[in-house]
Amino acid sequence: MSILVVGSVALDTVETPFNKVNETLGGAASYFTTAASLYNQVNLVAIVGSDFPREHLEFWRNRPVNLDGLQIKEGRTFRWVARYHMDMNSRDTLDTQLGVYAGFHPNIPKHYRSSELLFLANIQPELQMEVLEQVPRPRLSVLDTMELWIMTTRPQLTEVIKRVDILFMSEEEIRQYTERPSIVAGVRQLLDMGLQYVVVKQGSYGALLFGADGTYFSAPTYPLEEVIDPTGAGDAFAGGFLGYLSKVEPQEDGLYAIDEIKRGVVHGNIIGSYVCEDFSIGRLRTLTIDDVARRYQHLVEYSHFDPNWRSR
Ligand code: AMP
User: Fold this and answer.
1) Distance CA 145, CA 152 (A)
2) How many CB atoms lie within 10 A of CB 162?
């Protein structure tokens, strides 16, 4: 099952309390594509400028990544500058330069339109809607967003939320969007908009899965001793989630079994944890499915407890 992603491909400048990198490969779609291509074919739709280093394209060409939908336009690639605090769950965006994204409209190549799994990575909701109009019925559609769109284009974001199956949001974004202090109440409000699932990203604390069918699952987090750079962890999480599901047979009703959705969330957490071990997509370059399997076993051990407890 192939995977379609539409989102940003960027050059990021990132500073942490310990180090700094300049104009390294970034963008939500870059993290997603690199992560999901560990599992399956990824069809990428994005835009870069004429200044985009060709070595990044070469890297993707050596993986199961289809670049037919990547537009290369005269001009500057999207640039993003951010600084992390000592608590690496929080950061400041210092600069965003849209470059060629300013005039971007996603054009989904015909041979991409049968992709069964769709990830609408973080870009303007209007552009996400343009994608949904070109790919009206994927088997599973997943939406990511950010504070900027919640604050500046809420009505458009609402229309997109109503059209997808799964929404990924951080705790903070859920509070911002729903204006409810309780995450559980906020998630309920989101599920009432027609979503099948909401995944609540909790940074270094893992992720929560809520289903319209009443499902609740708390996915464990891998205890990393050192976080080098958490940028893109959410996008890589989505790559692990959809990458895993792309290998799984849906049920007869066309939906994924809840246990598969839970495994997908655990894969997401694992890939998200690996991304934090280096700047940019550094750690994903060499990551293998055996590395994922090892961490999967650790998480099973770390989160299992005996259900047979009795008070004395
Ligand atoms: P994350 O850490 O998951 O929030 O993703 C960070 C990535 O999002 C960075 O690589 C940025 O290049 C990209 N990004 C930041 N701001 C925007 C934006 N306004 N639109 C699209 N992508 C963005």
Assistant:
1) 12
2) 10
CA 165, 200, 25 angle in degrees (round to 5)? 90
Amino acid at 27: G
Nearest alpha-carbon partner for 79 in 64, 97, 92: 97
Please classify residue 4 by burial: count the beta carbons closer than 10 Å to its beta carbon, then call 0-12 exposed, 13-18 middle and 19+ buried: buried
CA separation, residue 252 to residues 86, 133, 245, 256 (Å): 48, 26, 15, 9
Residue 222 CA to ligand 1 centre (angstroms): 23
Task: Please state whether the predicted TM-score (pTM) of the whole model is above 0.90.
Answer: yes
User: Could you report the per-residue pLDDT of 250-301, keeping only the tens digit for each?
Assistant: 999 999 999 999 999 999 999 999 999 999 999 999 999 999 999 999 999 9
Strands (E), the chain: 3-6, 10-15, 20-26, 42-49, 65-73, 78-84, 91-97, 117-120, 140-144, 166-170, 197-201, 207-211, 216-219
Number of neighbouring beta carbons within 10 Å of residue 288 = 9
For ligand 1, is residue 144 a contact (CB within 6 Å)? no
Model pLDDT for residues 95-122, shown as the tens digit of each residue: 999 999 999 999 999 999 999 999 999 9
Helix residue ranges, H only, 73-220: 125-134, 147-152, 154-161, 171-178, 183-191
Instruction: Judge whether 118 and 138 are in contact, CB under 8 Å.
Output: yes
SS3 79: strand
Q: How far is the CA of 299 from the centre of ligand 1 (A)?
A: 28
Measure the CA dihedral 232/93/168/101, to 10°: -80
* Contact (CB, 8 A) for 153 and 124: yes
- CB within 8 Å of 88: residues ≥ 6 apart: 16, 204, 227, 230, 276
- Indicate the DSSP class of residue 276: T
How many Cα neighbours within 13 Å face the side chain of 110? 0
Would you say the CB of residue 26 lies under 6 angstroms from ligand 1? Answer: yes
